[in-house]
């Protein structure tokens, strides 16, 4: 019952204050997920946030404190930014004291090294212990305290326990310099590691830092600066040149150019004028705009993007799950191996116990898995954040990873490969009807339809349908996937595909069926055929190059459309699509996707559509990709990946970002495991000491973190040839398409 209540309870995002390592984060996540009433939980280590049911926060706090004392859960409100804890004065003061301790320990360590030979085997030998142990406790007392506390809590095999065990063992065999060096270099490495992680966290957060801070609310004759959350739907706001658009709305006064790069990744400003929609996150560059708000801030484009990117860590990639599981068993396995190395060889060969113990302690130093546990999620989060900067929203690391395994890309046609902007190019009335009469009948029947084809018919009619022809419209019914059935001036009117007319026994003259490429709308009145309209669409400018690039990458490209054979063939030939299927109902697209999925030999299938009427297919595909998500709630909700503008070429860019991210992640995994295994092998044969081991451990972690940070620099490296597409004007020809 408590689990059911927890599932129904709305979860709240909390910031985790306090310092904790990536390995501890994984432990917290695992324990929270296993707790009844909390359920599956993911900690976003990159932003130090977690989403929890409010009624379980106290319980979650207790669980997390068992693993890392001092952590605190603080609720995040929309008005707050997810800021890194190291920005606070208290943390800065702690860092200063931390550096001071390290410097004092370094000075004492240097003194010990200089005078060690004089103090040994003399009456001053006590000074060796005093200097070294003072340096050891100054820099390592927190590590020792955490290790002791965790032992009593049953939390063994973390880095504090390993460092404490290794250094205390070194002191026991009188390897004082090694003990101090390990604790000192570990502390320095941890400090540098935290700084690197925080820098990466801040840089990733900067990618998302386009939340508008205020809105200019028009109040009577005055303009008041308020928080965007205080503005209600229907109110008007003023957006001056250079300001961010704070809320989604419609322009009611003024015209300007807006910078959409924060939302779409495109640097070319877009012209907007009265009647145009405008989205939060855009930047007004020239004129003054008056905007009528259509959505509250919580539902605005900018907030949805922020939520999607920040919550993307809840969908973990297979690689990330593997590393988390691997880390659980890696450290205990190394500890057991170290114990065996310390005990077995001396017992079997009468070897020097102290020498084998030293080798075992050296192995303990290298056994912390933090390099892997930190770098993998940071790499994925950086890839998702970098993609969002290019106007590509990826809802989780699992989808980012899936993009690297794509082998088949299935496209919807209208609004995806074509512009979806229709116009009536031919009017063919039957005998007894004029072109104007045929248009009036069709426009009246299509008066309520939101479909782009219906809109093109009404625009061609030219008159105000609401005031004239609509007066005779008595009833209206949409026949799913086929057209419109209406009652106009007491007559039954059918407007749509040939099948719609043929189902009720209306014959269409053979010469009029599929006369040529183009979307054909057939019209009947009271059971008689009265004519047809031919409507054309045109291919998007960068669709040919996008398909060409996918073909070059070895992808199988497929187009599914509800349009007729002639239209589908014309578009497929223009774009060089591998295969196409026409005359499909929405459920037929799902069937074809399942057929393609069953037939695939390897790799995953992506479906890319406009997100408005393709939700079933988007859901069925391995990766559902919605085009033109800017302002489209349906697109953002239904798809796994959302391309914010209408460029098919962004799919290629998304695949390349995903591959780049995966390459870096596997570089980190291979490098970290390779170095650790090499050092462990060398330690077994006595070829490395503790100094080298701690350098290898902390050095690997730092290098892995810095390598993971390269993902966010993808846009600075310049795109490879083929990433951006320029299509000759001659290729952007009009084709008859729907």
From TrEMBL:
It catalyses: Cd(2+)(in) + ATP + H2O = Cd(2+)(out) + ADP + phosphate + H(+). It is found in: Cell membrane. Keywords: ATP-binding, Cadmium, Cell membrane, Membrane, Metal-binding, Nucleotide-binding, Transmembrane, Transmembrane helix. It comes from Desulfosporosinus metallidurans. InterPro entries: ATPase_P-typ_cyto_dom_N (IPR023299), ATPase_P-typ_P_site (IPR018303), ATPase_P-typ_TM_dom_sf (IPR023298), ATPase_P-typ_transduc_dom_A_sf (IPR008250), ATPase_P-type_domA (IPR059000), Cation_Transport_ATPase_IB (IPR051014), HAD-like_sf (IPR036412), HAD_sf (IPR023214). The chain crosses the membrane at residues 99-117, 129-149, 161-186, 329-348, 360-381, 665-685, 691-709. Residues 211-310 form the P-type ATPase A domain. One of its GO terms (cellular component) is plasma membrane. It is a multi-pass membrane protein. This is Cd(2+)-exporting ATPase. SUPFAM superfamilies: Calcium ATPase, transduction domain A, Calcium ATPase, transmembrane domain M, HAD-like, HMA, heavy metal-associated domain. Belongs to the cation transport ATPase (P-type) (TC 3.A.3) family. Type IB subfamily.
């Amino acid at each position: 019952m408590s689990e059911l209540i927890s599932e129904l309870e709305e979860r709240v995002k909390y910031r985790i204050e306090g310092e904790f390592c990536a390995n501890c984060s994984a432990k917290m996540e695992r324990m929270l997920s296993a707790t009844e009433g909390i359920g599956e939980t993911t900690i976003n280590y990159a932003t130090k946030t977690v989403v929890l049911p409010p009624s379980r926060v106290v319980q979650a706090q207790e669980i997390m404190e068992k693993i890392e004392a001092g952590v605190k859960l603080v609720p995040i409100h929309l008005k707050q930014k997810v800021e890194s804890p190291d920005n606070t004065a208290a943390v800065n003061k702690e860092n200063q004291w931390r550096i001071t301790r390290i410097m004092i320990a370094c000075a004492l360590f240097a003194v010990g090294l200089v005078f060690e030979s004089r103090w040994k085997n003399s009456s001053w030998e006590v000074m060796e212990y005093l200097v070294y142990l003072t340096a050891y406790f100054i820099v390592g007392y927190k590590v020792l305290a955490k290790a002791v506390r965790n032992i009593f809590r049953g939390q063994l095999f973390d880095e504090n326990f390993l460092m404490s065990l290794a250094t205390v063992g070194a002191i026991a065999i009188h390897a004082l310099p090694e003990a101090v060096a390990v604790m000192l270099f570990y502390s320095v490495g941890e400090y540098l590691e935290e700084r690197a992680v925080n820098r990466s966290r801040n840089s990733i957060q900067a990618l998302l830092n386009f939340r508008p801070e205020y809105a200019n609310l028009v109040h009577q004759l005055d303009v008041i600066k308020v928080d965007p959350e205080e503005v209600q739907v229907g109110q008007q706001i003023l957006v001056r040149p250079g300001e961010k658009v704070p809320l989604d709305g419609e322009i009611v006064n003024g015209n300007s150019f807006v910078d959409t790069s924060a939302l779409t990744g495109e640097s070319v400003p877009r012209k907007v004028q009265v009647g145009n929609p405008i989205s939060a996150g855009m930047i007004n560059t020239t004129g003054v705009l008056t905007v009528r708000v259509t959505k509250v801030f919580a539902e605005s484009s900018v907030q949805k993007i922020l939520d999607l990117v920040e919550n993307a860590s809840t969908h973990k990639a297979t690689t990330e799950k593997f590393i988390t599981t691997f880390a659980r068993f890696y450290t205990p396995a190394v500890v057991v191996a170290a114990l065996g190395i310390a005990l077995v060889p001396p017992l079997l060969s009468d070897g020097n116990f102290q020498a084998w113990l030293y080798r075992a302690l050296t192995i303990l130093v290298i056994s912390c898995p933090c390099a892997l546990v930190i770098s993998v999620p940071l790499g994925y989060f950086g890839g998702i954040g970098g993609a969002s900067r290019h106007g590509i929203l990826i809802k989780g690391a699992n989808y980012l990873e899936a993009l690297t395994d794509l082998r088949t890309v299935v496209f919807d046609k209208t609004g995806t490969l074509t512009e979806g902007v229709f116009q009536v190019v031919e009017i063919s009335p039957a005998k007894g009807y004029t072109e104007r009469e045929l248009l009036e009948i069709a426009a009246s029947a299509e008066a309520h339809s939101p479909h782009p084809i219906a809109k093109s018919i009404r625009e061609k009619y030219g008159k105000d349908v609401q005031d004239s022809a609509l007066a005779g419209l008595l009833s209206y019914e949409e026949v799913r996937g086929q057209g419109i059935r209406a009652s106009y001036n007491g007559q039954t009117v059918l407007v749509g595909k040939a099948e719609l007319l043929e189902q009720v026994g209306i014959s269409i003259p053979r010469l009029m069926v599929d006369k040529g490429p183009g979307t054909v709308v057939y019209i009947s009145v009271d059971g008689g055929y009265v004519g047809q309209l031919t409507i054309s669409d045109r291919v998007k400018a960068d669709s040919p190059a996008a398909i060409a690039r996918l073909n070059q990458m070895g992808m199988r490209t497929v187009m599914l459309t509800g349009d007729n054979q002639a239209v589908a063939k014309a578009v497929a030939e223009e774009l060089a699509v591998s295969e196409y299927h026409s005359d499909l109902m929405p459920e037929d697209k799902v069937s074809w996707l399942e057929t393609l999925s069953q037939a695939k030999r390897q790799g995953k299938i992506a479906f890319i559509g406009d997100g408005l009427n393709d939700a079933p297919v988007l859901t069925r595909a391995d990766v559902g990709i919605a085009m033109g998500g800017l302002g489209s709630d349906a697109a953002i909700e239904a798809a796994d990946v959302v391309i914010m503008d209408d460029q098919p070429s962004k799919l290629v860019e998304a695949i390349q970002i995903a591959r780049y991210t995966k390459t870096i992640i596997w570089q980190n995994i291979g490098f970290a495991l390779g170095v650790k295994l090499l050092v462990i092998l060398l330690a077994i044969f006595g070829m490395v000491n503790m100094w080298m081991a701690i350098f290898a451990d902390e050095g690997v972690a730092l290098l892995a973190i810095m390598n993971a940070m390269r993902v966010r620099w993808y846009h600075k490296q310049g795109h490879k040839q083929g990433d951006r597409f320029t299509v000759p004007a001659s290729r952007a020809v009009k084709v008859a398409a729907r």
